[in-house]
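We emphasize that the prediction below concerns an isolated chain of 271 residues; any contacts that depend on oligomerization or on bound cofactors are therefore not represented. The input was used exactly as deposited, without trimming of termini.
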Amino acid sequence: MPVFNAALIQIDSQDDKDANLAKISQMIDEAAAKHADFIALPEFVNYIGGRMGFIENAESIPDGETSQLFSRKAREHHVWLLGGSIVERIPDDDSHVYNTSAVFNPKGELVALYQKIHLSISRTFDESQVIAAGSRVVTFTTPFCKMGISICHDLRFPELFRAMAVRGAKVIVHPSEFNIVTGRDHWETLLRARAIENTCYIIAPNQIGAKKNLTSCARSMVIDPWGNVIARASDRECVLMAEIDTDYVDTVRERMPSLSQRRPDVYGGNA
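Result of the prediction step, given as a token string:
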């Protein structure tokens, strides 16, 4: 199944978790009505608020309320669903949580779990004060292709994206709450760079709206393996659709075989 329809949900999540979940459910239904095969949501999709609010609203995965919603909707609509990210409770740790992205298959089964590796520091919020860093590169297999997951600040670390591409990822999904200050200048440039250097699709659903500590830049988009923006959201809450042709990844990799020209014998690792 080389071609599939991807839906990116651009949403304005706030500090009312119940209201966020109701909106998430409605927007997933809208994406399914548009014949999405794969649905992706942005970072911190079920709650964005103060530092202690992240601790109070953390959930276990897959038993928590948000994960159960994702599982139920994936099963109801028979779609693949990447639930953006939520704060995941860490057993025996009352001061830190993980920033975690979970993937559910059309049976509603949890098939992949990625905990954000690179934590951002801004003038208003140091994520490490409340969020623990993950330590695993994650890819997962779908009927469409192998995919990878990164979250927001991870975008600034090309090594992570290269590691996923080397593992066979043709699509990397990048849920974010990228802010408007850096987003104006860096968001699209970095997304296109990651797509070009790894000759892969980048699916990047982003938050929109003014939050307590920042304003999100919106501009959810899909980049193809040649670096072209093939879908871009307007500045409003919306469901953005894009057709993904995984055979095109093979075509570009044949035309631009940079992955096969790597010299790990010189610089080592997954770079």
